[in-house]
């Protein structure tokens, strides 16, 4: 899994330029290839022991050219795994809260237009087994570039405190085209444990 982009351009880009380049890459996929990618990613995940051994799973409702998640959400529900969706908590310390989602959960759009459950069982982030995250970019070491809100980083900051804390498993979901050669990790960035794309499920080594 590698993207043959130009290394110079990626490494010398300012963060805003890199973000807009990655948004453009994410947008470039045709509707047909998006559906194909979605089907393939779901097949890889459903065949994995990571998925089979995860009980409490969080994922997201895709919007704005993110990797589509409709079939992933169906898969999680088909296996009767409790499914949680992120809800933005915009207090002094913006972070995510995870609320259980089922077929009849009422969803309401947040200020970014993303549908969120407003009522339901809340699960503390550390009790989740598997968290599927959207992203703009990732590299071969599991560094993740999000949309710049710091929501996932703040919510899962506890994972950076000790290498012994291995729960939940953070799985990025993306198109292969979102891979870049190297992302400069900031001290607060929480790295991914794995990445799922249309070409497979890849685990990152922790050093
Ligand atoms: N644990 C933290 N404590 C305090 N501030 C944080 C923490 N994590 C991130 N931030 C702040 O959030 C801002 C955005 O972080 P960053 O650019 O890494 O977002 P991101 O990873 O793209 O977003 P997201 O986590 O929502 O996907 C930064 O200015 C950073 O200072
Ligand atoms: Mg970050």
What would you give as the CATH superfamily?
A: NagB/RpiA/CoA transferase-like
Element pattern in H and E? HHHHEHEEEEEEEEHEEE
The small-molecule ligands in this entry are:
adenosine-5'-triphosphate, magnesium ion
Alpha carbon gap, first and last residue: 21 Å
Strand content: 15-25%
Number of domains: 1
Largest sheet, if any?
Answer: 8 strands, mixed
CATH architectural name: 3-Layer(aba) Sandwich
Integer average pLDDT: 93
Strand order of the largest sheet: 6-3-2-1-7-10-11-12
Content-based structural category: alpha/beta
Overall morphology: globular
* Share of helical residues: 25-40%
CA-atom Rg in angstroms: 16 Å
CATH class: Alpha Beta
Helix count, DSSP H or I runs of 4 or more residues: 6
CATH topology: Rossmann fold
Total strands: the figure is 12
Low-confidence stretches: 1-12
Structure, briefly:
The protein is an alpha/beta fold. The protein contains six helices and twelve strands.
């Amino acid at each position: 899994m590698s993207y043959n982009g130009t290394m110079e351009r990626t490494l010398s880009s300012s963060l805003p330029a890199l973000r807009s380049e990655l948004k453009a890459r994410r947008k470039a996929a045709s509707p047909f290839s998006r559906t194909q990618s979605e089907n393939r990613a779901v097949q890889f995940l459903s065949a994995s022991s990571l998925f089979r051994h995860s009980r409490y799973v969080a994922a997201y409702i895709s919007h704005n050219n993110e990797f589509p998640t409709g079939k992933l959400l169906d898969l999680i529900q088909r296996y009767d795994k409790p499914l949680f969706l992120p809800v933005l908590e915009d207090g002094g310390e913006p972070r995510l809260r995870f609320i259980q989602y089922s077929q009849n959960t009422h969803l309401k759009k947040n200020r970014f237009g993303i549908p969120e459950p407003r009522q339901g069982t809340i699960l503390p982030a550390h009790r989740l087994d598997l968290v599927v995250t959207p992203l703009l970019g990732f590299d071969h070491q599991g560094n993740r570039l999000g949309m710049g809100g710091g929501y996932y980083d703040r919510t899962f900051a506890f994972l950076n405190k000790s290498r012994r804390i291995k729960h939940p498993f953070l799985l990025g979901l993306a198109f292969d085209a979102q891979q870049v050669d190297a992302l400069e990790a900031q001290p607060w960035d929480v790295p991914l444990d794995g990445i799922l794309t249309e070409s497979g499920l890849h685990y990152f080594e922790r050093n």
